[in-house]
Model the fold of this input.
Amino acid sequence: MTVVAGKARAIEGPRWEIARGAQGYPAAFECLDDPPSTLYIIGDPEALCEGLAVVGARKATPYGRQAARLFAGCAARRGIGIVSGGARGCDAAAHEAALEAKGRTVAFLGGGCDMPYPACNVGLFRRIVASGGAVASEHAWEVPPKPYAFRARNRLIAGLARATLVVEAGVGSGTFSTADAALRANREVLAVPGSVFSATSRGSNMLIGQGAMPVVDEGSFCEMLDRLFPDSVVARSSCVQSGGAASISGQIALPLLSERESNVAAALAADPMRLEQMVAAFAQGPDAVFAGTSELMACIGRLEALGAIERFPDGRFGAVR
Done:
């Protein structure tokens, strides 16, 4: 294990170069077909212990980000390290949840640690290091990130984790490759189910169809964690906490909603829609629950005012993030 000193850089903190076979090299990587020859680490190398990988789409939906935050936070509160790739979307949400829970988290980069990508997450990487976690790579410090390197990086995320939780993934995505790497390393794969109409959940749903363990709520997830991490000493009660107005199951816990308003809010929590989709679903046809568009618009306005739903930048309405 070598301590590295140097000039001021984008991510400050203790620097280490750990060769395979040296003290501090994670034994978990020996399960990989091609373990990294050297690890370049900023932060605490002891953070690179077996944990839970939480991965998902970069162009995540609010549902995906909410699922990543919920389950990563749940595991972190139990003292389980969170491993991910530092990308936008679900990865960043998982790291943030671990930090909020005062837990440790490790971000594996696709390039050298002095070329952090994406640049918009440099602040997140700094907070990961400052909190006792680590930013790591198999590439030397100033190697720029390349597209092909990210799929190779995914095997490190899967290799360090006892289990990989896929919260949102399209078929053939980089996230899907992390699940493949976990299976090749004989590790558990968990997946959060999503809407059959959502392209970003098709990979997750396919994994469940192929035998991945479905994660449907906090309670069952805690039971999985108890089995996967029997050495975790944090009480089960710390895992299940209120998720706010909209839980992962889509149950809206807001007062003063009529039955129709509750149904609309729950439907949007499960599958965000644009206005024309809501009109077709709720105000047209034999199954319409509103007399017309104006009545539906009044309902949407009330749900927004109560904080049950919000309008996303892409024009869809869904549960408040």
In short: The CA atoms of residues 73 and 98 lie 5 Å apart.
